[in-house]
Amino acid sequence: MNIGFWVCAASSIVFLLLALLFTLLKGKAAILISGFSTMPKEQRRLYDTKWMSKDHRNMFLIWTAILGVGALLSLLISTYMAIPAFIVWIIMFFKDVHLDEEKAFGKYKF
């Protein structure tokens, strides 16, 4: 049983579904972004939700590709090929996570 393949494939499918959700809901999907949903409505109006949703959709698609390649390589080469895929994903994840509201959403202000 190739656990690397299954973990990467399942994660890739989850991120693909999230990307599809953000594609279908467009600007309304911004409410699903952590930190944005806890803002007061008056403050949320100051941000471009369509741009925010598009950026998160693209981020999920990149994560899907990284983990999809990891799944494919772990199936074709070695189950250990999933480890570099997850390391790259973790680096990408922490690059995009911000604890400060201004750093997280500042570029989306009108």
TrEMBL record:
It holds the Pfam family DUF3784. The keyword Membrane applies. Keywords: Membrane, Transmembrane, Transmembrane helix. The chain crosses the membrane at residues 60-93. The keyword Transmembrane helix applies. This is DUF3784 domain-containing protein. It comes from Blautia hydrogenotrophica (strain DSM 10507 / JCM 14656 / S5a33) (Ruminococcus hydrogenotrophicus).
